[in-house]
Amino acid sequence: DADVTQTPRNRITKTGKRIMLECSQTKGHDRMYWYRQDPGLGLQLIYYSFDVKDINKGEISDGYSVSRQAQAKFSLSLESAIPNQTALYFCATSQGPDTQYFGPGTRLTVL
Amino acid sequence: AQKVTQAQTEISVVEKEDVTLDCVYETRDTTYYLFWYKQPPSGELVFLIRRNSFDEQNEISGRYSWNFQKSTSSFNFTITASQVVDSAVYFCALPPNAGNNRKLIWGLGTSLGVNP
Questions:
Q1: Bigger pLDDT: B21 vs B100
Q2: Would you call A67 helix, strand, or coil by DSSP?
Q3: CA distances from B113 to A29, A40, B106 (A)
Q4: CB contact, 8 Å: A96 with chain B?
Q5: Contact at 8 Å (CB) between B40 and B87?
Q6: Higher-scoring residue by pLDDT: A82, B100
Q7: A5-25: per-residue pLDDT in tens?
Q8: For residue B102, what pLDDT is reported?
Q9: B101, A96 in Cβ contact below 8 A?
Q10: CA-to-CA distance for B100 and A2, rounded, in angstroms?
Q11: Which of A7, A100, B70, B90 ranks highest by number of CB atoms within 10 Å?
């Protein structure tokens, strides 16, 4: 089984809908991250969490919120989806500032 | 400021050719790590290697090798005898410095196409 899982893997939704992307890990890592990837822009950090009670905004947090329900679970919400949030979303984990391991990604399309 | 530059946007080679992907970085830190990740067409991000700035020895793993040169701030990645399955986007990344312990600094990636 994969160490970092993301659900759903693909999602098509409409403008204005609320969407939740979920991430779970079995690596026992303390840190979790949400990134988005757009063609030509590389990876941009949305939110990151160093532990359950420590959540921080990344460089593009507007329009997004997160919840760290447990050490192993970190969910990303789009409160009111808009078309420019169409992207590939990745969850990642690390133990401290060490290597980040990524989930398989969620391809989100907002119509 | 920290920065990672992958000047090669796209590279196309024929199978069995050797290919080198360049990565140049900037950092004020005296000690640091560098990473390479692979993103195949299926989309997942796969960790390839972590390199500590203490260690400038070249690293070899099968057909993959990495040349780290602190003097030129480069961490280049060579694939020997490339195969079609090596077709992917490859990213070089640099961790945050001690005062900005938030995220990896990513290059924009090099898209490698290996043709049969």
A1: B21
A2: strand
A3: 34, 17, 21
A4: no
A5: yes
A6: A82
A7: 999 999 999 999 999 999 999
A8: 61
A9: no
A10: 30
A11: A100
Phi–psi pair at B90, nearest 5 degrees? -115, 130
Chain B residues with CB inside 8 Å of A45's CB?
102-103
- Alpha-carbon distance A12 to nearest alpha carbon in chain B (angstroms): 17
Helix (DSSP H) and strand (DSSP E) numbers for chain B: 0, 12
Helix (H/G/I), strand (E/B), else coil: B70: helix
Residue B104 CA neighbour count, 13 Å, CB half: 31
Cis bond before residue A8 (omega within 30° of 0): yes
- With DSSP H G I counted as helix, E B as strand and the rest as coil, what are the percentages for chain A, rounded to 5? 5, 60, 40
Q: What is the DSSP letter of B97?
A: P
Nearest CA in chain B to A31: B102
Residues of B in contact with A48 (CB under 8 A): 102-103
Contact (Cβ atoms closer than 8 angstroms) between residue B113 and residue B107: no
